[in-house]
Amino acid sequence: MSRPPLSYLRIAVTSRCNLRCVYCRPAEAPDEPDTLRADEIVRFVHLAVQCGIRKVRLTGGEPLVREDILDLVARIAAIPELHDLGLTTNGTLLPTLAQPLRRAGLARINIGLPAVDPQVYHRITRIGTADEALAGLQAALDAGFHPIKVNTVVMRGINDGEVPALARLTRDAPIDVRFIEYMPFGAEPHERGDHLVPAGEVLERLRQLGPVEPLDEDRGPASARRYRIEGHRGTVGIIAPHSAPFCRACNRVRLTAEGRLRACLIDGGEQDILALIRSGLDRPAMERLLAEAAALKPPQHTGAFRGRMHHIGG
Fold first, then answer.
1. Shortest CA distance to 225 belongs to which of 252, 244, 211, 210?
2. What sign for the dihedral angle of Cα 84, 100, 122, 159?
């Protein structure tokens, strides 16, 4: 099958974060000043939308640590022809920001939640608490966001035992909990087995909660395979970049916190465009950049993540 045209842009608006998750950044990594200014981000999105981008997601780091995040959301949400604006967060700052984000025009929220058990959560985030994250999830529900997606990177021996507890969040709330296969940092493909929990094993753990019904099986190789556990209001999903790659269906391109246009999350294909952004990026240049990014996408990734997740964004 041919790959669809690029229509989904993810922007890491900051590399800063209030947590230090083990799969995202080294514990000692210092916070760095934000590279991209709000005006630069808004202009970039304007041009990208003119060139066919229809969906934008703001990521980090933790995007909610930006002091101008509400203004940034409002300005991007007002761009004509942008169909969907989302944001990925660890949720801990949502108790005070969920309602203002909703009023600013944010349509969707994804919350990274590695565990509900307090000790497991702290082991992964190093400085966070599960109560803060769960309060953020509730704040997003109270603000009326729909859909709300909860993302969990599953790591063997660390939080794989949390799969049933996380899936139970869908029992009474209309949320989508998605379990993501772990991507090692710079490791060779043969080394990834230490923490990798394959999609099939995650599905078996979900069946501990009851019969599991597949959803949307006619939609082709979407990134998440979705299921509903009998009696649950919400859904669960499995994203399996290793055991079931979906590269041929990928329509995404990423702008990193350092101003690099990245064609593939796992295998890179980066273009350093910060100088171009600051020297007067225009529509012909954006068309060329997006075409080059599409050409840099590999037919299938090699399975080993290369880069710094807190700079690239999820």
1. 244
2. negative
- Mention every residue, 6+ apart, whose C-beta is less than 8 A from residue 220: 1, 249
- Cα separation of 118 and 301, whole Å? 34
Give the type of residue at 132.
E
Q: Output the CA torsion sign for 117, 123, 129, 134.
A: negative
Distance CA 253, CA 10 (A): 6
Q: Please give the Cα distance from 170 to 153 (Å, whole number).
A: 17
Q: Which residues of 176-196 are buried (b: 16+ CB within 10 A; e: fewer)?
A: bbbbbbbbbeebeeeebeebb
d(CA 216, CA 225): 8
Which residues contact residue 243 at a Cβ distance below 8 angstroms, ignoring those fewer than 6 apart?
181, 198, 199, 200
8-154+245-312: CATH class: alpha beta
> Among 85, 83, 6, 97, which Cα is nearest to 41's?
85
What residues pair up with 226 in beta bridges, in sequence order?
215, 237
- Cis check for the bond before 147: say yes or no (omega within 30 of 0): yes
The pLDDT tens digits for 108-136 are 999 999 999 999 999 999 998 999 999 99
Is the per-residue pLDDT at 269 higher than 50? yes
pLDDT score at 279: 94
Domain range summary for the chain, segments of one domain joined by +: 8-154+245-312
Alpha carbons 122 and 200: distance in angstroms, whole number: 27
Helix (H, G, I), strand (E, B) or coil at 292: helix
DSSP string, 173-224: S-EEEEEEE---BS--GGGGGGTB--HHHHHHHHGGGS-EEEE-TTS-S-SE
CB-neighbour burial class of residue 122 (10 A; exposed 0-12, middle 13-18, buried 19+)? middle
